[in-house]
Amino acid sequence: MKNTISLASRSDSATSRLRADILGGALDPGALLAETAMAERFGVSRVPVREALFTLEREGLVEFGTTGRAFVKVLTPQDFQELHTLRLALEPMAARLAAPRLRKDSSALERNLAAMRRAKSVRQITRLDLDFHELIIAASANTRLLKLWGILRGELDLWLGRLHRRHQIQTEQTLDETLEAHASIIQTFQSQPPSACERVIHKHVQGWSEWLPTLEVQP
Amino acid sequence: MKNTISLASRSDSATSRLRADILGGALDPGALLAETAMAERFGVSRVPVREALFTLEREGLVEFGTTGRAFVKVLTPQDFQELHTLRLALEPMAARLAAPRLRKDSSALERNLAAMRRAKSVRQITRLDLDFHELIIAASANTRLLKLWGILRGELDLWLGRLHRRHQIQTEQTLDETLEAHASIIQTFQSQPPSACERVIHKHVQGWSEWLPTLEVQP
DNA sequence: GTTTTCCAAACAGTATACAGAATGAAAAAC
DNA sequence: GTTTTTCATTCTGTATACTGTTTGGAAAAC
């Protein structure tokens, strides 16, 4: 019997490495992602690199120019505004659908909250925050909703990563506020009807954008 | 100077042909889309076929199995339910955002309505119906909203195409109802505030699913 | 000094080739 | 007759090679 945990294909490997480079900030927004150079760097041929670029375009981390060249996506404040609008449309809906399931079992949310209390780095906190929201969306059991969220999440991750790298926001105070808000949301799911869950998420998502200053017109 | 209207690349060509085959019903749901066979049929190599498959997967017309093989997507009534839920989340939001623009200029919607009155085939009517909704979403000026809609639209197109090919629904009565509803929506955009536009679209999308019988568990 | 022209390098689009995995039917074992 | 094994076929994953286009800078023209 062979190792059932299939080793990642070269495409997957290239995708992971490129994603890490982009989200980790190793590549600047707008940087050219030339296939040949990346193929050499990753030690694979251009074919898997190509697939990685397509995959990451779908995740919102890469964009293609008119001549077919791939670049690290450049996000503007307006892009962020768009993302926020979509979150406001999708997340309350997800909360309402997820409410019955989360009422029965909110342990995943609680584990996330506990992990967030222990978290050290800003990056980790950001990830856990997005994970919290993703848990609710996943609990909606709407596969397409989760798929759409995946696209938004990639861009959110990109945006927040840059923001945190550049400015030292996410102070202890905002972290405490987030922890408190998440705890309150869990309570709502445990004891309130779906419509209340929908409202509390709407309010949370709306408020979440407020502690983000509207900044950096120019990277 | 060369022809500035760039001829479609082989990838685009393969994408269009395959999309037409799928939406036109030439390929049954679940049918294997083997790269070699398609490459031969389209007279290109496997590379452009591969890209076409990725593109159409993103559009929701193709799905990949666990072993990397591509199939024509199989849609279940539950899938349709998911799509409907997402429309309910996205379209009212789009309507609210689009309201100011459409109030100033609703000519595109009116042209669509006129075309729909003249339309003959069921397929054409379906397309124009989806186009009507797409016009509103485009008028929201939220590029990501339009992008997400693109994914949903592919699947809706797929579902409705099959439905109409199998059953002879979309009678004259439902057509008249649609025409009336769209006319009423245009009027709302022309004279009512964004919140009313949001509500009317919510109601329309909700009602739209009702004349669709919950049918065909098995293709 | 500024603009235009031209060219070499870089890049993406595509074809072809080969290796390895999945599949399904025939053959063997029970 | 049913199950298991085998194996040729089919399919995808990936590498490599070739072609045409884009790009950016050097050279020429003004």
Note the topology.
The structure is a homodimer of 219-residue chains.
Chain A: H1 10-23, H2 35-42, H3 46-58, E1 62-64, E2 70-72, H4 77-104, H5 107-118, H6 122-139, H7 143-166, H8 172-191, H9 194-208
Antiparallel strand pairs in A: 1-2
The structure holds a DNA duplex (30 and 30 nucleotides).
Structural notes for this entry:
2 copies of one chain form a homodimer. With 219 residues, the first copy, chain A, is mostly helical. Chain A has 2 domains: 10-72, Orthogonal Bundle (Arc Repressor Mutant, subunit A); 77-208, Four Helix Bundle (Hemerythrin (Met), subunit A) (Up-down Bundle). Helix content of chain A is 69%, strand content 3%. Chain A has 9 helices and 2 strands; from the N terminus they run H-H-H-E-E-H-H-H-H-H-H. The first copy, chain A, has a two-stranded antiparallel ribbon. The longest helix of chain A has 28 residues, at 77-104. Chain A is elongated and about 55 Å long. Mean pLDDT of chain A is 89; it is low at 1-6. Chains A and B meet through helix 3, helix 4 and helix 7 of A and helix 3, helix 4 and helix 7 of B. Chain A binds a DNA duplex (30 and 30 nucleotides) through helix 2 and helix 3.
